């Protein structure tokens, strides 16, 4: 890929795809999963996500993999770590499946359905979220990431569209869109220009097409938290398009200042997550401790986690 590849920096505002772009038919999806109804939720490069209505007032979310080369066996290998990721802040994988739909046998991931919409539905460009809510949100995300990282899974695609806000409560974020992270990684940047919507959240090492490690997730959370606090992107505001080289220069120059009402401690923390050198961003676990301090002294996990230092440069 050429470094002159242009990215759209405002694409984080228009994440959700119109439902009529779906390839599969709702009735067919419902029949394949033996459920009452199926409603489209989102469509990415590798699959279509559908909400399944189980008919008893409960729902699941199923991601149907559209690539015919993606078998259930391959999927099972990919999601090994996720089965062990137990956190209220990581969407629960219920099962993998193999279904006949749209004229082919397709692999699928079935997740718990998190009610309340994803973070894009709660963010308005230019509008700011209360710093207290951002700290609670950040704590939850970092706790989810610490769990994922502890089972050696890197999310690689953290952005508002991939974070559900359970019951609309900023304190209950849930990481979504897991399982394909490994495949999506760098191959997708070159093969799927349609994925450019994710680029505004990419760490400089990802923009340089290196393999994304755990610290790339920390960077992406930093972008999300800055966006929430300021209502604007930390690096790309005022630019419609940028080459990857230009984007990296802007990241190296440092983020825009956060609004005055954001405390110096919180601003310093978000700035650390956004450092160009991945070894300086700290681990998700360390971020949990630091955010817990900002939340006040009411966190029992703070003292426990303090004993588990030494993981700050984990990959
Ligand atoms: N488990 C879930 N609970 C609630 N909403 C979900 C769930 N999974 C996905 N969604 C919604 O569907 C959208 C698309 O799903 P996602 O898994 O991110 O697939 P992709 O980005 O590949 O289309 C998400 O942005 C979110 O709004
Ligand atoms: Mg997604």
Outline the structure in words.
By secondary structure, the chain is α+β, with helices and mostly antiparallel strands. It folds into two domains: 92 residues, Phosphorylase Kinase, domain 1 (2-Layer Sandwich), CATH 3.30.200.20; 182 residues, Transferase(Phosphotransferase), domain 1 (Orthogonal Bundle), CATH 1.10.510. It is built from eleven helices and nine strands. The protein is globular. Bound molecules: adenosine-5'-diphosphate and magnesium ion (MG).
CATH class of the largest domain, named Mainly Alpha
* Spatial strand arrangement across the major sheet: 2-3-4-6-5
CATH homology group of the largest domain: Transferase(Phosphotransferase) domain 1
Helix and strand content put the structural class at: alpha+beta
- Name the average pLDDT: 83
Compute the number of helices. 11
Head-to-tail CA distance between termini? 25 Å
As a percent range, the share of strand residues is 15-25%
Q: List the secondary-structure elements in sequence, H or E.
A: EHEEEHHEEHEEHHHEHHHH
Q: Could you say what the CATH architecture of the largest domain is?
A: Orthogonal Bundle
Name the poorly predicted regions. 1-5, 9-19, 183-197, 297-315
Share of helical residues? 25-40%
Q: How many strand units?
A: 9
Domains (count): 2
Gyration radius, rounded:
19 Å
Main sheet: strands, sense, barrel: 5 strands, antiparallel
Shape: globular
CATH fold category name of the largest domain: Transferase(Phosphotransferase), domain 1
Bound molecules: adenosine-5'-diphosphate, magnesium ion
């Amino acid at each position: 890929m050429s470094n002159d590849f242009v990215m759209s920096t405002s694409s984080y505002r228009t994440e959700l795809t119109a439902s009529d772009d779906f390839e599969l038919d709702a009735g067919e999806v419902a029949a394949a999963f033996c459920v009452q109804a199926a409603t489209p939720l989102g469509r990415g490069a590798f699959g279509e996500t559908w909400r399944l209505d189980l008919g008893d007032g409960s729902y699941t979310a199923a991601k149907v993999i559209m690539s015919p080369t993606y078998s259930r066996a391959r999927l099972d290998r990919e999601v090994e770590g996720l089965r062990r990721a137990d956190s209220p802040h990581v969407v629960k994988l219920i099962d993998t499946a193999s279904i006949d739909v749209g004229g082919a046998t397709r692999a699928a991931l079935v997740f718990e359905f998190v009610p309340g919409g994803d973070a894009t539905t709660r963010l308005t460009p230019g509008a700011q979220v209360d710093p207290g809510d951002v700290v609670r949100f950040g704590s939850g995300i970092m706790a989810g990431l610490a769990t994922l990282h502890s089972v050696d899974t890197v999310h690689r695609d953290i952005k508002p569209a991939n974070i559900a806000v359970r019951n609309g409560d900023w304190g209950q974020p849930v990481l979504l869109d897991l399982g394909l992270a490994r495949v999506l990684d760098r191959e997708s940047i070159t093969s799927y220009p349609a994925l450019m919507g994710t680029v505004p959240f990419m760490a400089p090492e990802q923009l340089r097409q290196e393999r994304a490690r755990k610290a790339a997730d920390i960077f992406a959370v930093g972008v999300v938290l800055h966006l929430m606090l300021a209502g604007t992107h930390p690096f790309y505001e005022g630019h419609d398009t940028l080459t990857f080289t230009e984007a990296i220069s802007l990241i190296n120059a440092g983020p825009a200042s956060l609004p005055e009402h954001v405390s110096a401690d919180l601003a310093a923390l978000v700035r650390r997550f956004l450092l160009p050198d991945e070894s300086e961003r700290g681990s998700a676990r360390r971020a949990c401790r630091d955010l817990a301090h900002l939340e006040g002294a009411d966190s029992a996990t703070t003292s426990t986690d303090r004993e588990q230092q030494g993981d700050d440069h984990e990959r």
